[in-house]
Amino acid sequence: MEDFNDSKQKNGVFMIKVASKLKIYLYSALALSALAMLLTAVSYLVAFDSIGYFSDTVLPSIANALCLAAAVWFLASLFVIPKNALDGATPTTLVTSLCATPFCVWSLFLGGFLLYAYLEHQSNPLGIVRMMANGAPMPVMLASVFLLISAIYFALAWFPSMQKKTETAVLGLFVPPAAVLLISLTYFDFFVPLNSPVKLHFQLSTVLFILFSVYELRALIGKPRPRAYFALAMLTVFFSSVSSVPQIVAYLGGKLTGYPTFLYAIFSLCILIYTVGRLIVFVSARDLLERISDQTYTEEDLLPAEDEAENEND
User: C-alpha distances in angstroms, 219 versus 165, 213, 226, 230?
Assistant: First the structure.
């Protein structure tokens, strides 16, 4: 029993260390995201030219350097956090439900808007579909359908009992293709040059969100990858903060034109809010300690390997 208590104490210290690392990463992710958001927003207002690019000045360079450093820092968590330290549970709480609500509402709105655009195309080929998809109606129609189904998935965040059901995971499968189609639509946005940072920021943050949503679905079906989930959550929060609020500020400030850019920026803002909620709950000390204690505080798990072998021989 004394050996068991010693092992229990060691595991308690280990848990506290892991929780501390996760908290450090959480706070740094939020702080770096806020700083990058500020730097990028100011860069749009003072160093963004009429062609669609940042001028060769110090502020955008600092923002870009911060993006690179943050990405390296977040990816390092894959090596800093021990492999078996987390069970990968992603609990549904009031925070996650509230943070999923904007995504649900905007998916409904954007899906309905794209459906209207598709229907309008039948009588007005030079209308919205021409502006958003270079006259190709199929991506618009598919994006509309997938977004409307995705809205149901985000609405289910208010029903914790539904989170482990197969139906929820099936609905979640429509989120990645919806995001992929939105990325494809940005390619045809005539208001922004092809390789402008406006498009690149949105596309990068959306790709990261696609990967994050895939790992979220893995957790729903009982095959989590918690360290990858955690790293992708931080990366998604950071780059969606760069592609959301700064572009909205630039649009309202007259630096960006064209409503598609504004629609995509709001989508990035929904990604930001949703992922921040998931990240905070994942790192929550109460939830973390409960999950790890359920996993490690058993005498059988804490028996030394040789004692287990003796028990098997007995």
Answer: 12, 10, 8, 12
Characterize 216-253 residue by residue with b for buried, 16 or more Cβ atoms within 10 angstroms of its Cβ, and e for exposed: bbbbbeeebebbbbbbbbbbbbbbbbbbbbbbbbbbee
Which residues, 6+ apart, have CB-to-CB distance to 285 below 8 Å? 19, 23
Residue 198 lies in a domain: yes
What's this model's pTM, rounded to 2 decimal places?
0.86
DSSP code, position 263: H
CA–CA distance, 130 with 143 (Å, rounded to integer): 15
Residue 48 phi, psi (nearest 5): -110, 120
| Number of CB atoms found within 10 A of residue 307's CB | 11
Residue 52 lies in a domain: yes
In whole angstroms, what is the distance from residue 195 CA to residue 198 CA? Answer: 8
Give alpha helix (H) positions in 135-244. 137-155, 166-172, 175-186, 197-220, 226-243
| Residue 161 forms part of a structural domain | yes
What tens digit of pLDDT does each residue of 91-100 get? 778 888 999 9
Task: For residue range 137-154, list pLDDT tens digits in order.
Answer: 899 999 999 999 999 999
* Res 15: pLDDT: 62
CA angle 52, 55, 57 (to 5 degrees): 155
The tally of domains found in the chain comes to 1
Q: List the domain range (segments joined by +) for residue 220.
A: 2-303
Residue 308 lies in a domain: no
Listed residue (165, 145, 182, 163) closest to 270, CA to CA: 182
Per-residue pLDDT tens digits for 190-249:
778 888 999 999 999 999 999 999 999 998 888 889 999 999 999 999 999 999 999 999
Between these two residues, 289 and 18, which has the higher pLDDT value? 18
**Residue 55 and residue 52: Cα distance in Å, rounded?**
9
